[in-house]
Every structure is written in C-alpha cells, then in structure tokens.
Amino acid sequence: MGRIQLKDVTKSFGDVQVIPPLNLTIEDGEFTVFVGPSGCGKSTLLRLIAGLEDITSGHIEIDGTDATDVPPAKRGLAMVFQSYALYPHMSVRKNIAFPLRMARMDKAEIDRRVEGAAQVLNLTDYLDRRPGQLSGGQRQRVAIGRAIVREPAAFLFDEPLSNLDAALRVGMRLEISELHKRLDTTMIYVTHDQVEAMTMADKIVVLRAGHIEQVGSPLELYRAPRNLFVAGFIGSPKMNLIEGPEAARHGAHTIGVRPEHISVVPEGGVWTGRVGVAEHLGSDTFFHIHDTGLADTITVRADGEVALSHGDQIHLSPRDDVIHRFDAQGLRIA
Amino acid sequence: MARAVTTQRKAINTAIAWAIGLLIFFPILWTILTSFKTEAQAIADPPLFLNFDWTLENYAIVQDRSDYMRFLWNSVILAGGSTLLGIVIAVPAAWSMAFVPSKRTKDILLWMLSTKMLPAVGVLYPIYLLFIQLGLLDSRFGLVIVLMLINLPIIVWMLYTYFREIPGEILEAARMDGATLREEILYVLTPMAIPGIASTVLLNFILAWNEAFWTLNLTAVDAAPLTAFIASYSSPEGLFFAKLSAASTMAIAPILILGWFSQKQLVRGLTFGAVK
C-alpha cells in the first residue's frame, strides 16, 4: 500500500516560503511525476514526503496514518538520489543489503532478497565490486536495487537520470517504467524534463514557485493545459503563443498552437513567413519561422521530407480544432 | 598547463629545500650528537661536530637514574587516551557542524579555536585548584581529560573540514535506509572519513605527546610522561648537557619514528581542504 496525502503542507526556509499551502493526493500504485523549472520546489516537496526536511505546517498522511512527525526511516519509503548516493566503501552487495541490515533482517533472507534484486537489475556479475568500479547506469541500478529490496510503500526518485548520458537515460527511463508495471508500487518521480514526465507518468503535477499549476494525466495536460505556464511547459517543441489581432480573431487574449498542429501548405494558407533555422531530424523537420507578423518565432513540426531551407517563404495553416485560447490572466478559456 | 622547469632549476630548488630542511632539523641533530659526547665535550669551545669520542655512557646513566619505560608508558597513555577520547567526542560534534549547521556554527568554530590562543598559564590556577579538589593531581585520568580538552578544538576543526567533503546525500540515503543516527555515523560516515580521522589522530597524538606545560605542572611522579623525564635533567644539580641530550633523544625517538613512517598521512591531513 502507498497512498500519500499532503494536507495544507507548507515549507519555509527562514522567512522565505518555498511551498505555500499545498494539497495533493497520490493514489496507491500511481506513478506520479513532479515537474517544473529549477527552483520550483519539486525536490523540496519530495524531501518533505521523504521526511528529510520537516514541514513548517500541515500534515502528511501515508496510508491514512499521520506521518508528519515520523522519521524518514520509519515512513516505509525508499529514495533514489540524483547523485546515486551509494556507500563508496561498501561492495554492491553490501550497498543493496544495507537497508535490510538496518532492519535487523536475518542473513538468509537478506541474501535471498539481494540476489533477487540483482537478478532483476542485471547486477549479478557486479555484486562484489565497489561503486567506484561501475558505470553511471550500473550505479543507478544499484541505487534502485537498494530501494526495491526494502519492498517500500512508495519509491521516491529525485531526478535520478540527470547524471546519465542521453542514450542511457532513454534506456533507464524504460527500465523504471517496467519496474513500476511489475511492482505496481506507488512511485513519485521528480524531474525538470517534461519528456520524462510525459513518457513515464500516470499523473503529472506541474509546479511553479511551490504552487501546483495543474494535476492530470500526460494527455490531459497536453490537450487541455489550464494556463499559459502549463501550455508552454508541456510539449516539445514548445507551443507557439500568439497575442494581438490574430488572438482577438479567436476571441482570446492569447492563443496557443502546438508546432505539430500547423501544416505546411504549398500555396495560400492562413499565415506566411520566412524560414529561419530548419532542424532536420530525419523523421521530422522543425522549422523556426520569422516575419509572420504573429510572434518573433513560430515553430512548426513538419514531415522530414519537406524541402525548405533558410530564407524560403513558407505558407502555414493551423488546425482550427486544436487552438488553445487563454484570457488576459493567462487562464484557459473553455 | 604545467610550467616548464629546467633540470638546472630543479637541482637548485632541491638544494635549497635540503638546506632549509637541514636548518630546521639541526637542533635535533645537535641534541642527538651531544647525547653521545662526554659532559666536557658537550660544552667544549669551539663546539665539536663529529670529531669526539663517541660514548653511550650518558644513556647508561640516564637509564640507571630513572625508569625510562615508566615515563614512556605514561606518554603513550596520555597521548593515546586523550586523542581517542577527543575523537569520540569530536566526531558527533563535527558531524553536527558539517551536516546540520546553524547560523552560529562558524562563530562556534572560531570561538573554539580562539581558546587555543588563550595563554595556558591564564587558566593554570583554576585548573590546578580543581585538580586538588577532585583529587586528580598527578593522575593519568586527570591529565588525559586536560590534554583532550586542549586539543579538542583542533580535532573538531580537522574532522569538520573532512566531513564537509562528504556529500550529505549519502548520509540522507543512510537515513532513508533506516539507519539510526548512531548507525549513520558508525557505518557510513566514519568509514568514509577514515583517511581524515587517521590524520587527525596522528597529529593530535604528536601534539599531546609533546605537551609540556600541563604535564609538568599537574604531575609529579605517578603520571609523569617523557616531557617531565626531560625536564628532570635540566635542573637542580646544574646543567648536564650530555645527559639532558640523551634523555631528550630517548623522549623524542618514538614520536620521530612514528612521524617518519606516517609523513604522507600527516602532510595530507595538514593540507586537506587547502589543495584539491
């Protein structure tokens, strides 16, 4: 079980309030991602749940019992840190066994669980090595191994992939997702990378300056961002935000059109502009277009085969049914 | 980019380094040489460098007159005991300063160090009275406590510098893994800080070994260490340089040997944090 509830939780460091009153429920077995720009309070929130920081006011409940004043070790949560935080003086085996040793589990059971975790994480051949002798990806797996042997109520991940190179990151992303499917345990995952959030989450919590901007499934956030911040944060490349007469034409202060919802047409079209930078990814091409009279740059995601280059004139036609409308306060107009 | 150093330049540097080293070492060398002279040769003018009649009689006399082993044993107990006790007290103190610092941590550290700048004689009287009241005069126990207190600021400072190099996340991981504070310090922090703790132990052992002010003032017979052993040759019957030198050589020999074998650790300990 691992249902976590935050009730009116606040956190201040001295006079600075980093988390204003915040309410959130994370259901048992859910993969929840906290996402937001750096300094938005997402890591602090995770550390409050872990118990590594004391909350200033409010309550944290784990499975219905008040855990506000329970020390980290007694909350039944396991954490994977950004820096892996492995014990450098212990072998992989001892690292993974450490939480079990602290729980005074008997030797045979410890061995059984460590072997099991090592098998799941492909670490069997490395059990007698020190963390210093492992690659980044292997270290991260050891850190995950140390978390899973405890069979915790929930896993907390604090930007676990940001120290890995791009290729490895994609691989580990899949491994963690698979682990979640297999264990069916609550996972809370902190990242600043919206791609990680979109691909892994059951539920995304978008944070800005300690405030929850929106909570929802990845597609809910993609299809119906509640405000301009979420609209600009979720989706890659970023949504185009257009103000002025073009927005007024749609009865809004600002309209948002995603790059993938604009088609390149040979003639006519609604908008015209001049190609600035064209990024050819093979499957897709991202055109950054200037001189449209709408915004500084309009980004368009086109088919990889579209052969336009710097300086060419381009005709664009947005899909009317997926234009997002926002009012002067930046809130979505239904 | 490494600066290019010519061979000639290197040779000059080496020569200068050796010259400075010898200059600093000379008093010790002179003491050792004098210990092998007769009393007359020891005060000969002009001084004799190597061309004297080498003799071991000073060592024999010193050995006859006083029980060297007893002094040595006291030195070991005082230096070892005060260092170990200091470490046991300083590890938790340095832990809290390094990992849960408050606004005043820096001030406390400086204040602690400032006590080292206080002239020791300023607190001799109160401590002497306390020792009389508590019946600690000339006891090893009392002296272990005093030496520990004197070196504690240095021990805490050194450990604090080492601990600050250890990432806090590893200790937090231990906390998440269910380690109590004691287990966190015992199984995670201490093993990771072993090199630092070793340097600290070594330096403080040497400092405590060489401590003379308190050991001379607070001991008489039972707890007297090697510093008192040397001092006993420098007085009432007049000056006996050769015997004094023999006693000094015997007193500094153990720590000299220890220092020689552990010089790498020592240098690392003293420059830690300064150079990365």
Tell me about this structure.
The complex is a heterodimer of chains A (334) and B (276). Chain A is α+β, with helices and mostly antiparallel strands and 334 residues long. Chain A folds into 2 domains: 222 residues, P-loop containing nucleotide triphosphate hydrolases (Rossmann fold, 3-Layer(aba) Sandwich), CATH 3.40.50; 90 residues, Nucleic acid-binding proteins (OB fold (Dihydrolipoamide Acetyltransferase, E2P)). Chain A is built from 9 helices and 18 strands. The longest helix of chain A has 18 residues. Chain A is globular. The two termini of chain A are 37 Å apart. The mean pLDDT of chain A is 91. Chain B is an all-alpha fold. In chain B, 72% of the residues lie in helices and 0% in strands.
Structural class of chain B: mainly alpha
- Give the SSE string of chain B: HHHHHHHHHHHHHH
pLDDT averaged residue by residue of chain A: 91
Which quaternary structure do these chains form? heterodimer
Find the CATH superfamily of the largest domain in chain A.
P-loop containing nucleotide triphosphate hydrolases
**What would CATH call the architecture of the largest domain in chain A?**
3-Layer(aba) Sandwich
Rounded to the nearest angstrom, the distance between the terminal CA atoms of chain A is 37 Å
CATH architecture of the domain at 66-232 in chain B: Orthogonal Bundle
Residue fraction in strands of chain B: under 5%
What is the number of beta strands of chain B? 0
Question: Helix amount of chain B, in percent?
Answer: over 70%
Radius of gyration of chain B: 23 Å
- Largest beta sheet of chain A, briefly? 6 strands, mixed
Strand order of the largest sheet of chain A: 6-7-8-3-9-10
Give the N-terminus to C-terminus distance of chain B in angstroms. 16 Å
- The fold-level CATH name of the largest domain in chain A is Rossmann fold
Radius of gyration of chain A, whole Å: 23 Å
CATH topology of the domain at 66-232 in chain B: MetI-like fold
